[in-house]
């Protein structure tokens, strides 16, 4: 199902039928500013001139919901066309959540580019690669100690100088990468569709070890207490030693684990496409509890104080009390939710498939404000 979501829309364009990826990122908050990339919408249809609109941009908002600035991200339109259509620039689809570091916002795009944008003004600092493009970039970026890391659909992991965008190294895996890399010390962890979890040197990209699952890995890993926790399309959640890649335990479910799990007080909380959230002992993998949300869980959860906030695909938002191991529904947005959740100062920010951004009180679920991010 998620593969269908990721593949985007089929629309009638000026040059016939085209497949247009929708995109839509999660929210990042830094220095009191929210950053996200709305999904692309399409206007028109049939054999007339269809023009993508909305989305294709980075938006900066105050925590009150006030717009600060936005910058369009576009590629040149195709030449030619049918019935006298004039090609227009194409907005760029973004799936990975933006990363903010050192006064820059970093975005990986479906058109195979990395953008670095000034976080205060919205001015473009650099683009990688300068010429041509890579294969689609689905996962998010990670910035640590002056380096930018990301995975690409060409199967490679890249490290760039975060200030200049110059490439420092690359590492080739056996298949495409949708996973977002995680850095722990001098180690980079990332999964690939070749069914492997890789541990690389963050300094030079050399491989430290690899762990092979039974299915493709698209989820982002969690590193907690020298252990890497990661879900796979083989319907397993794995706990692997961060030191040598040896398997500590595995937990199986009825469907696959797509979300990045979270850890609190020696317990792993993992949402699954079977509609359940599993609470697992971090050391042994034994099940502490499970909670049926009634709908697949694709959005990454967040921890607020001692509660874990989850959202189901159908738009319901839940708060899981880690002390009592009880879950309660705190909101129902009635809109599909796929993108990672974000929280700050007791407020949870959620971007829905209907292109609305919500700010909810993390304790009560009360809607503080909402904002449509479609084109005008």
Describe it for me?
- The structure is a single chain.
- The protein has a domain at 284-376: Lipocalin (Beta Barrel).
- The chain starts with a helix and ends with a strand.
- Strand 11 (99-101) and strand 12 form a beta hairpin.
- It is 2% helix and 47% strand.
- The model is unreliable at 1-21, 44-54 and 77-84 (pLDDT under 50).
- It is mainly beta and 376 residues long.
- It is globular, with a radius of gyration of 20 Å.
- It is built from one helix and 38 strands.
- The chain has one helix at residues 2-7; strands at residues 9-13, 16-20, 28-30, 33-36, 41-43, 51-53, 57-62, 67-72, 74-75, 90-91, 99-101, 104-108, 114-118, 124-128, 142-144, 147-151, 156-161, 167-172, 182-184, 187-191, 196-201, 207-212, 222-224, 227-231, 236-241, 247-252, 262-264, 267-271, 276-281, 287-292, 302-304, 307-311, 316-321, 326-332, 342-344, 347-351, 356-361, 367-372.
- The strands form eleven sheets. A four-stranded antiparallel sheet has the order 3-4-7-8, with no helix packed on it. Strands 11-12-13-14 form a four-stranded antiparallel sheet, with no helix packed on it.
């Amino acid at each position: 199902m998620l593969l269908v979501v990721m593949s985007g829309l089929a629309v009638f364009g000026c040059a016939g039928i085209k497949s247009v990826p929708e995109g839509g990122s999660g929210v990042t908050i830094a220095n009191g500013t929210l950053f996200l990339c709305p999904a692309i919408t399409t206007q028109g249809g049939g054999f007339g001139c269809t023009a993508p609109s909305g989305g294709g941009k980075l938006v900066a908002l105050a925590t009150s919901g006030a717009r600060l600035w936005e910058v369009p991200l576009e590629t040149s339109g195709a030449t030619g066309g049918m019935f006298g259509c004039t090609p227009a620039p194409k907005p760029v689809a973004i799936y990975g959540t933006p990363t903010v570091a050192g006064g820059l916002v970093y975005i990986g795009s479906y058109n195979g580019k990395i953008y670095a944008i000034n976080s205060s003004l919205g001015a473009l600092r650099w683009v990688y690669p300068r010429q041509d493009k890579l294969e689609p970039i689905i996962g998010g970026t990670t910035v640590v100690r002056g380096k930018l890391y990301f995975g690409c659909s060409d199967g490679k992991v890249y490290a760039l100088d975060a200030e200049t965008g110059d490439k420092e190294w690359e590492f080739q895996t056996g298949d495409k990468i949708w996973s977002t890399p995680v850095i722990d010390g001098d180690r980079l962890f990332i999964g690939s569709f070749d069914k492997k979890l890789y541990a690389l040197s963050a300094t030079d990209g050399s491989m430290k070890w690899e762990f092979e699952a039974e299915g493709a890995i698209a989820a982002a890993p969690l590193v907690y207490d020298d252990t890497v926790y990661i879900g796979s399309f083989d319907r397993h959640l794995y706990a692997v030693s961060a030191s040598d890649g040896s398997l500590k335990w595995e937990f199986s479910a009825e469907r696959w684990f797509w979300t990045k799990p979270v850890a609190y007080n020696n317990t792993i909380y993992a949402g699954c496409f079977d509609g359940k959230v599993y609470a697992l002992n971090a050391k042994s993998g034994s099940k502490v509890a499970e909670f049926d949300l009634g709908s697949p869980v694709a959005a990454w959860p967040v921890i607020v104080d001692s509660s874990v906030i989850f959202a189901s695909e159908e738009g319901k938002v839940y708060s899981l009390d880690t002390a009592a191991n009880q879950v309660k529904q705190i909101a129902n947005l009635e809109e599909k939710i796929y993108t990672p959740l974000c929280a700050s100062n007791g407020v949870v920010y959620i971007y829905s498939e209907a292109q609305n951004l919500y700010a909810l009180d993390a304790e009560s679920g009360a809607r503080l404000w909402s904002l449509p991010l479609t084109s005008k």
